[in-house]
Amino acid sequence: MSRKILLLLTAALLVAGTAWAQTSPSETNPNFNGNTPVAAPTAGLGRHGFTKSYTVDGPSTTEASSSAGRFGSDADDILDVRYYDPSKELLFLGFGSDSSNRTDAQVGFSKKFGDIYAAIFYQGNLGNVTSGKQSFFWNEFVQYEPVLYRNTVLRNNVALLIGLADMGFRLDATHSSTITRYRYDDRDLLPEAYKATSNDKATDRGTLALSWGAKFDKIHPWAELGYVFGGRYTNHEEGDGYSYTQEITWAQQAGISAGAAYELAEDRSVGAALAYRYLFPEVEKYTGIIPLKDGISSEPPTWAWGDSENLNRRFGGYAYSVDAYYSQTLDYEVLTVKFKPELGYASTYLSKDIVGGSIEWADNADRWITVDGKVKVGVEIRPTNRTSFYAGSEIKVFAYTRWDQVRSGEDEKNPAVKSSWRVDGINVETPTLGMTFSPSEKATAGISLSDLFTNSRSVALTLKLSLGGN
After folding, report:
1. What is the pTM for the complete model shown?
2. How many other CB atoms are found less than 10 A from the CB of residue 279?
């Protein structure tokens, strides 16, 4: 009876959360199978310029993406270095689109060649292009329009897994780039001090990762090595009487992660993970006349830095995290609930040296310490043998963050050390919803909806086909 009550309460909580949750999407992507290495909780690694995981985000099945990663299918496991099934040969197709008309496709394929299992997966697009006109608000007093814009986004991610002797070896490569262009048509409506005519921005970056995993009886270890190739960000703006260029040579980054899961029982498990990231120094360079707002919203901006040639900022640092979780499954007839409490600790150090122009700071650093606790909950309802409904959410129970800023110099306005801290309470993220339908034993189609009450709401379609095997 107590188990039945707990299941009903969990389902009611998700339904209620759907009605009132209005938080923004989590930094932790919910479209991860709970078994994959990239799903290991990392309290603060996804922030402050550090890459949380170097592996490809996928496959993203309806079962996983609609249940906060608590449920999954054999399609989720085709790239899992620990839980791949060599007896399954599958073809997986997925397509997603969000409110900004950004689309991504995913294709996965697995097959066994003798004693060797192989799976390959692609996720991304060959180019998403959006263009049009938009209003630009300088402040609450000044507005001008139209602004012509064109945004091009390229994302191409590939992963390959080789399974041999109950162990998996996986290679991931990702690449992304964006190009954004603005053209200001009616410049007579611009503030006098801001006669911009054009603004061009571009980014480019890629990662490479190697993962290993195995399944030894009840212990399932994994490890990951990753590297971020130093990309580039450029921002060039021109206007009447001024021109400036911002160039950032993004830091190369290396990292290692490792962890293991232990099966306590068929429906319960625990796990832990360690991660370390090192950020090689990067350089940010400004040239030309740099516009800087003076903070007075009713007045046009001033050129606070004037002619500042070669104003440079250099960044570098490291981060590490320690995380643990407990996973539990509860079944009652057609209803199954899975929940996963997680506890994480992360420490981040980031240097900030500014040299050039009218200011010069050296040996400056920011330090963050983050401790958080959360619970991921997923629900599956099976009204028939061919149809299943899913819902899931991440409940942030608490989060503590401490920030220390250290400067080499000290004065009245800038003391040598400034500290602050923050504690956040319970926060229920917008639940995701999904449904799967199996017209036959070899085919399953699905649809998932996420971020329904935010501006980034999205829909995804998936199709899984069994090509053979057991």
Report:
1. 0.77
2. 25
